Amino acid sequence: MGAVITIVIVAIVVILAIALMVSYNRFVKQRNLIQESWRQIDVELHRRYDLIPNLVETVRAFAAHERHVFEEVARLRTQAVNVQTASPEQRAVAESELSGALRQMMISVEAYPQLQSNQNFLNLQRELTDTEDRIAAGRRFFNANVGDYNTRIDAFPSNLIANGFKFEKAGYFEVKDETVRAVPQVSFGTIGSVAGEQAPPQMQQGAHSSGQIQPELPGGDQGYQGNYPQVPQQGQPQPPYQGQPPVGGPPAAAPGPQDGQPPFTGS
């Protein structure tokens, strides 16, 4: 009996040791994946740091009086370079400010058509756009790995392993600029009717010309009435149906055609 209990205890200890080792190794793997994904973002950020001076010099040649914009971009670039050893949260703040300055510079150069046709500027702008797209993709991948890692640190029983081996939560690399997060507003202009607005007169005239609204006929009737009887509205006296004689009298003679009007041929 004592041997059986000993075997059971040893088996439980072995299972717990294996579970501990698997959980620890998974934490290590997730931490290394976060570091690798961050290095990918860092490469693209350095690529953007290298593109900005060339882009600024190209724009300065055509828009020299936009000096305050160039100085702000240069200052924020230097600030972002100086915080490379900081946490992802601090670097995210610096990168968001730099992105806002770059966007403001791109908006200011729209007033210079000659710059828009400069091939060097177009190439730099294309490279910067591709770099920004890769940074955004890397940020999504990095934040997804950080989310899984932080969830395991909080969940039970993996939090016991995390606390025992000092695994700390990782920080997100999030964009704080509200202009990047803003949802684009779609304006319908004057086309159609939206939220109770009536269509403009041009569309109404187009509907008449396209046959959607039938032209008014003589006598105030609109459209083809055909052989369908008109239903009187509520509150109006209903005329007697001429297909049947009135009660207590001879059949009424059908009225003949009036002068200038063709005879009625409907059934």
From TrEMBL:
Its main location: membrane. The chain crosses the membrane at residues 6-24. Residues 237-254 have a biased composition (Pro residues). Pfam families: LemA (PF04011). Residues 193-267 are annotated as: Disordered. It is a single-pass membrane protein. It comes from the Bacteria. One of its GO terms (cellular component) is membrane. It is found in: Membrane. Residues 201-213 have a biased composition (Polar residues). Residues 224-236, 255-267 have a biased composition (Low complexity). The keyword Membrane applies. Keywords: Membrane, Transmembrane, Transmembrane helix. PANTHER family: MEMBRANE PROTEIN, PROTEIN LEMA. Belongs to the LemA family. This is LemA protein.
